[in-house]
Structures are given as C-alpha cells and as structure tokens.
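Tokens help. One example:
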Amino acid sequence: MTWLDQNALALYGAITGTVALFISFFSHRHNVKKDRIRLVVSFAPHPKADENIMRMNTADPNSLWARPQLAEIYSVTVRNMGGVSAPLDDVGLTDEVGKDHQALVHSRSGQMNFLVPLSKSNAEALEPRAAKTFSVYLNSDAPMFKVASAYAVDQTGKVWRARA
C-alpha cells in the first residue's frame, strides 16, 4: 500500500476543512465590514459656474437687491458605499489657504426657503449605496478660491476627504 492509499481519508478531511475555514473567514469579514459607514467624496465645478459668476458680477451694482448675492460654483458628491445609513454633519471644500467653504442646502422655515449649512438643517441620512450632490456657493463680496480638497463629515466625527 502506498502513502496516498493509507492517508486518503485524512487528506480529504484536511482539504475540506481548509476550504470550510476560508469560507467561514471571508463570510465573517464580509458580515463585519458591511455594517460600517464608508463614504466616497468627489467634487467638480458646477456646470453653470461661469455663467452664475458672470450674472452675479454684471448686474447693476447700484441696485443691490436686483442681483444675486450667491453663485453656485462647485458641486460636491458624497456616495455611501457602506451597508448602513450615513447621517452627514457637514460637507464642503477646503481651499489652498486651508479655509473651509461649507456646502449649503435648502431648509424650509414656514413659507420661507433658506440656504443653510448642512449641520443646521434637518437633512436625512444618506442611505446605503446612494449618492447625494451638494452645492458650494461663492458670496458676491468674496474672492474666487482654488480648491485643495473636498470633505464630508459624518455624525461620528470622521472626516472623509477627496484631494484635488
């Protein structure tokens, strides 16, 4: 008798046990990681940024109320790649100087509609495998800035960044 004939059952048990161990390990790893928040942040210039800035700057400077005071210049997209809802606390851009420019969202107060930072709004959590786009505005008296990174902060305080 050869060694393989004598140990065939043991060899079969070792191979199936090893395969079962790998299946169990990867199943456990998948189950643990799916219950985490994982955000992916990206940004791009707003499609009508140049037009918005031109409209803000070319309006009659004597009639302050006739021209827009804010212009949409960047869009920040936040994707929830995790398996649980991600409540967001803040979204925005950081310029090259290090100053943060928060994204503004619409907030309804009675009959009025206001633009407020995300942290001051009653925004819903970002569902798993969903994405939401936020707008960053330029104030009429603020200079144009160059973006260094985009960020999103979840309510646990973790900051997710995308570099330029």
